[in-house]
Amino acid sequence: MARLNLRGVKKRFKSTEVLHGIDLDIGDREFVVFVGPSGCGKSTLLRLIAGLDPISEGEFMLNGRRMNEVHPSQRGIAMVFQSYALYPHMDVYENMAFGARLMGLSKTEVEARIAQTARMLQLEPLLKRRPRELSGGQRQRVAIGRALVRKPEVFLLDEPLSNLDAALRSEVRLEIARLHREIGGTMIYVTHDQVEAMTLADRIVVMNAGRIEQVGSPRELYETPANLFVATFIGSPKMAVISAERTGNALAVAGATVPLARLPAGDGSLRIGIRPDAIRLQRTPTEGSIPATVVYTEYLGENAFVYARLVDGTLVGIRTTPNDLYEPDASVGLLLDNDAIHFFSAQDGRRLPA
Amino acid sequence: MPQLRLTGRGLWITALIVPPLAFVALFVVYPIISAFAYAFFDWNGLLRGEFVGLDNFHTVLFVEPYASWTRNAFSHNIIVFFALMVLQNGLGFFLAYALWRELPGARFHRIAVFLPVVLSTIIVGYLFKLFLHPLFGVVNISLRGMGLGELAQPWLGQSSTALWALIAANAWHMVGFPTLVFLAGMQRIPTEMLDAVRMETRSEWVKITKIVWPLVAPSATVVFVLLFVGAFNWFELPYVMAGLDGSPFGSTDVLGLYFYRTAFGNVSSGQQDFGLGSALAVLIFLFIAVIAGLITVRLRAREIQL
Are B272 and B263 within 8 A, CB to CB? Predict the structure, then answer.
């Protein structure tokens, strides 16, 4: 059992506040991913949960118990570091045994746990090796093993895949997902990679500039982003955001008037967001389509993306098929899928219900 | 086959390397070799006598009074080595740890600890002689001032404390060097590794002994070797503070002083023997070279790639 509750958690370094009051509840056995751009505070938040940095204000509870003053080693939390942070002077076995022995476990218990962990992570042939004799992926598994051996209630993983090459990354990603299913602990995972976030998470916490922008399942974040930040952060290529003006049952968008059945209440300016797969391209613009000029085309094999510039200068990505390619500077029309348009306030970027 | 041509670059390199090489050969290599040679001859003042084989070595090692002088000086060097190992290197390690933890005032102390190292040994020796003066020295005055007058000693004037006074002076003088080396070693430890330790234990002691020390140990190799060489070549400080005789009563005599006295003579003894002195020098050199080599090889094996 591990429930985490963060209440108004703030972090200041000297006079600079980097986390401005984080409220978050994480349930037992949940896989939560903190995602956001560099410097958004996601790693800082993880370090506060670990206890590596003190919480400046607010409260962190683990299973109802206040943790602010509890030493990192006493919290029942284990962490996997970005650089793996294996002890270079110990072999794999010793790396895993170090923390377990310090917990006061008996020799046989330590041995049993390491044997079990080594089997689960296929580390058995490596137990006598030093970290420098291991590949990146193997080191990563040892770092995870070291955390597992302590049988913590909460696992923290700080960008664990960022030092691996692309091929290995997806492999270890699957491995981590499998581990979470098998051991069933609560996992908190920090990444700036939205693919990792989308594939691994039960819930994603999107952070920006020291604040939580939205918490939700991958699907919720993709389908109903709470604001423009989340809308443009999740999804690749990015959702295009276009300024629009509502007049009656139509939108004035970049020199075109688009009649729409579904619109948010009220008149005036708003911003609309369209994902690449919610736009159809026309070779000759028709009534109700938005005129644009093709800038370039990305061919990706199974599909292709066309990037086109609207008359107001906005760059829009559109997914097409590999057989439907466009020359640069071609004039096209963009037909928007009404049901897939996201509406946001022009003032504060919040999502507007339609 | 590559030809050796004196191109412009080669000429430059040659011109820059040959003078210092010649200098080293003349003033370092030649004296060492000649000392080896001198050790096998009988000497009458500066006049070389006949070849005597290993007689000089035999005399300094086994013939009285030389044998007991040698043993006495050598035993003091050993005491100095181990005492400095604990005081200088041990203290250096903990000073480095304190500086590394960025305790308040770390910047000031980092400089303060290293500053004495750049002082000349002659100055340090002279200063400590003043500090330890039985009547006017700051040490005894402070002790009396604190009401601990019975602890005041003629530190340099009695056999029981003289050597330790010199050791303390040396430790004060040189502690900044191991501190600096250890500090550099500690600063190489990645912060994430220290975070990882903190996730596993709250014990500072475990952290120091199980993680920090093993990771810093490679930098200790050079500190150990230099301390060993320094301890067995110890000369300036005892010379300045205790004189050539290692007073009082030879209680601060070390191999360096003893060799110098034997080879070049002394105001008080007047006797001088180049052959015996050279034999001593050769023995000291061989001892240091062999042991320092062993320490280096032994400790190198433990070095860890971070």
Answer: yes
Average pLDDT of chain A is 90
**pLDDT value of residue B1:** 46
For residue A214, give the 3-state DSSP assignment.
strand
A350 located within any domain: no
CA distance, residue B234 to nearest chain A CA (Å): 35
**Taking Cα atoms as reference points, which of A272, A213, A252 lies closest to residue A36?**
A213
How many distinct structural domains can be found in chain A? 2
Task: Find the CATH number of the domain harbouring A125.
Answer: 3.40.50.300
| Fold designation for B64-300 | MetI-like fold (1.10.3720)
Q: What pLDDT does residue A214 have?
A: 94
Q: Which domain holds residue A324?
A: 237-345
Hey, which residues does A31 pair with through a beta bridge? A187
Give the model confidence (pLDDT) of A118-139 as tens digits. 988 888 899 999 998 998 888 9
Q: What is the pLDDT at residue B4?
A: 56
Helices (H), chain B: 8-24, 30-38, 55-62, 66-84, 91-100, 106-114, 121-131, 138-145, 159-174, 176-187, 191-200, 204-206, 213-232, 236-242, 255-264, 274-300
**Domain for residue A352, yes or no?**
no
The pLDDT of B137-147, averaged and rounded, is 84
In A301-320, the residues whose Cβ lies within 8 Å of chain B are none
pLDDT score recorded for residue A246 = 86
- Whole-model pTM: value is 0.79
Record: contact B200-A79, CB cut-off 8 A: no
The ipTM value here is: 0.84
CA distance B82 to A127: 38
**B-interface mutation test, from A48, A79, A87, A148, most B Cβ less than 10 A away:** A87
B225 touches chain A (CB under 8 A): no
**What is the pLDDT, as a whole number, of residue B298?**
81
Q: Same domain, yes or no, for A296 and A149?
A: no
pLDDT of residue A56: 93
